[in-house]
Write a structure and sequence with these properties.
The chain has 211 residues and is α/β, with parallel strands linked by helices. It is built from 9 helices and 5 strands.
Length: 211
């Protein structure tokens, strides 16, 4: 049903989903943070290539402030999981107006709590919730090791396992809130919306924050 569309993604995919939903880059902010000593992967992945990125968007030079929108107007809701957010600066996420559901882990070392606690409130979405899994790592969204044993063979056990959470249990929790959010936002199911209310029953180790 192309009239009811949601987009989501994990990490860089979460960042991409926010761009598709209307978020605007503010890469001069990122460049300033990097110049001031910020230890971010984005300093290496983006700052040296600002001119190339600008040209890929048909621009002669990198904009001084917010970059132009590449929003897909078909998107009705966005579900970023541990999204990279520094690239939106202080104002870029304010351009996201569709309903938003963040998933984050308080044990995430790549996108730590101070990052999402800073940027999540800047969303322009009138309806915005954040589901936090206590002590979960950045890769909690990846399939469990029993379904991708090659990760163990490659010595990347930490990608498909979590120090605290049972991966399958975490995915059940994520699916629970994700499904309810989509039923609410795309199907108008008000019963599904009730699990986001302040007095709703919560799973142990799960926090639901309303922007």
């Amino acid at each position: 049903d192309t009239e009811r569309v949601a987009v989501g993604g994990h990490s860089a995919g979460g960042f991409s989903s926010l761009i598709a939903a209307g978020g605007l880059l503010e890469l001069n902010y990122l460049a300033d943070e990097c110049a001031n000593g910020a230890q971010l992967n984005d300093c290496e992945f983006f700052v040296p290539y600002l001119q190339e990125i600008a040209e890929s968007l048909g621009l002669d030079a990198p904009p001084e402030g917010l970059w132009p929108s590449v929003r897909d107007e078909r998107i009705d809701a966005v579900i970023p999981m541990a999204p990279d957010q520094v690239l939106f600066g202080t104002e870029g996420l304010g351009q996201v107006s569709v309903p938003s559901l963040y998933f984050v882990g308080s044990g995430d070392q790549l996108i730590p709590p101070d990052v999402y606690n800073t940027w999540f409130p800047t969303l322009g979405s009138e309806t915005a919730y954040m589901v936090e899994l206590e002590n979960a790592s950045h890769s909690i969204y990846v399939n469990s090791c029993d379904t991708i044993p090659m990760m163990v063979d490659w010595g990347a056990f930490g990608v498909c396992a979590d120090p605290v959470w049972d991966r399958n249990r975490a995915h059940d929790v994520i699916d629970h809130y994700l499904t309810a959010f989509l039923l609410w936002q795309l199907n108008g199911d008000e019963d599904a919306a009730k699990i986001f209310e302040a007095g709703a029953e919560r799973f142990p180790g799960v926090n639901v924050i309303n922007k």
